[in-house]
Amino acid sequence: MTVRILLVEDDEVLLDGIKAGLSLHGIHADAVGTCEDAHAALRANSFGAVVLDLMLPDGSGLSVLKELRGRGDRTPVLLLTARDAVEDRVAGLDGGADDYLGKPFDLEEVAARLRAIVRRAQGRSSPLLECRGLILDQARRSLMRDGHPVPLSRREFAILEALMERPGIVLSKDSLQERLYGWQEEVESNAVEVHIHNLRTKIGRDVIQTVRGSGYRLDAAT
User: Fold this and answer.
1) What is the pTM of this model?
2) Which Gene3D superfamilies does the UniProt entry name for this protein (predicted)?
């Protein structure tokens, strides 16, 4: 699964390790280290999920969760914290978190839990996306076309995944760019067009349609 998350963690060494580990699973993390910065980031940006520490320099991560849910934002939240007593887990889950994982943790499990809560938010239980003879496995990050494996680059996978999650729906170039880049990364002006061209070469030119002036969509017709 390719998703852009907000990682709220004040331990810089741990933060760098989590970011690097999750990137191997196609999960791109924009990071902040305080409640104040988390509030600002969540008001100004849209994320596929939030990984939230409870013990932050300027307060509890529960205040971030409370504000998020208080304004009706249903972004999936995974609490990742050393505070792993039963009462802490209960407070976090009852406060609106979708999942809770104590430290120390395994990054494979963090990635799997993130995939699960994002799928649930989308109303899905399976990691497989299927359309037009394509089967995309979000957990294994692989694509099969008519029973044959199709190699994809990381960014080709991200774009196709976004389109297959919403077949028949037009996605703008900007929304696709958000799947490819974090908020501090420089965006290549023609990156989406290049990756769409490469995908059409690999899966068929008629599968991804260009909607002039609007964006791209996956043709869901069989």
Assistant:
1) 0.77
2) 3.40.50.2300, 6.10.250.690, Winged helix-like DNA-binding domain superfamily/Winged helix DNA-binding domain (1.10.10.10)
- The residue among 75, 100, 121 that closes a domain is 121
CATH number, domain at 90? 3.40.50.2300
Q: Tell me the average pLDDT across 171-196.
A: 80
Count of the separate structural domains present in the chain: 2
220: confidence class by pLDDT, cuts 50, 70, 90? confident
Q: Residue 86, Cβ neighbours under 10 Å: how many?
A: 7
Domain endpoint, select from 104, 121, 138: 121
